[in-house]
Amino acid sequence: MRRSFYLLIAAIVVVLDQLSKWAVLARLSPEDSHAVIPGLFNLVRVENPGIAFGLLAGLSLSMGLILIIAVSAATLALLTFLLWRSPVAATRSNVAFALILGGAAGNLIDRLFRGKVVDFLDVYLRDYHWPAFNVADSAICIGAGLLLLDLIFGHPAGQPSKQQWAGHEQH
Question: What predicted TM-score, i.e. pTM, was given to this entire model?
Fold first, then answer.
């Protein structure tokens, strides 16, 4: 597959993420909670000033935002580099990089324009609630899971080995 395909995946993630957040902001107030699957899944509106699962939310607004934006921008640069340098045949890795790139970009857009990330997916069981998340967070987690599969099980048939990834053919 061509690199443009992977960039398209990242762009689709950004569009879906931003459209879903726009719909949540337009239709839900911060106090709203709509049961989708009672006892398991709600739609809510949470505005998260921190990073993943509210980490760093306690930092001063300006310092935390600057730090988070800087880390996000560096992450986007690294992911773009990895996607550009990876062998085109590294399908699972490239899809993973594209999903993470799209998710990181979607959340960075929120931070730049809102100062916080909009989360709205609330998964819970009894009294245990997973921290609310969004489409971008989901893409990042799926991408990380795909990379983890590569680490645990290696590359599927037809995918480059680590040596090929580094530019050295295995002999």
Answer: 0.79
